[in-house]
Design brief:
It contains three helices and no strands.
């Protein structure tokens, strides 16, 4: 990987020796795991809303939009909080909240509707699920 001269540049874009530090590699590993889990949950939620609840792709994405907006808000607030709270504790708290959310998702039934989300749209305004072929 470094045979193309990146380690010899006076100012490389990324010093690959940074990955040799256990703390950096561990933090990146946890971040990769959390980001993969979050992407999977977003995929599963939108699939649930489309296939089980019968929502259009646009409406399903609009249901997920508040969570995405909250993700942006938390992502911008985390560096500010990291100045006041030890980063290790902050990351642990954020991962704990993420796990709690995943555990809440395990309570969603296939026929129970949207129990964990707002019931702003009544069942009469929701389109019926498409029949299976």
């Amino acid at each position: 990987m470094a045979s193309d001269g990146r380690l010899r540049l006076p100012e490389p874009l990324l010093d690959v020796r940074l990955f040799a530090h256990r703390v950096v590699s561990g933090a990146l590993g946890v971040f990769l795991l959390a980001a993969t889990a979050l992407g999977g949950v977003y995929l599963l939620i939108t699939q649930y809303l489309q296939l089980v609840e019968g929502l259009s792709p646009l409406r399903a994405r609009l249901w997920v939009l508040p969570a995405a907006a909250l993700l942006v808000l938390v992502s911008t607030a985390s560096p500010i909080l990291a100045r006041r709270v030890r980063p290790g504790r902050l990351i642990a708290a954020e991962l704990a909240v993420q796990v709690i959310g995943y555990l809440m998702l395990t309570q969603v039934g296939a026929t129970g509707g949207l129990p964990l989300w707002s019931r702003a749209s009544s069942s009469s305004t929701r389109p019926s699920p498409r029949p299976r072929r």
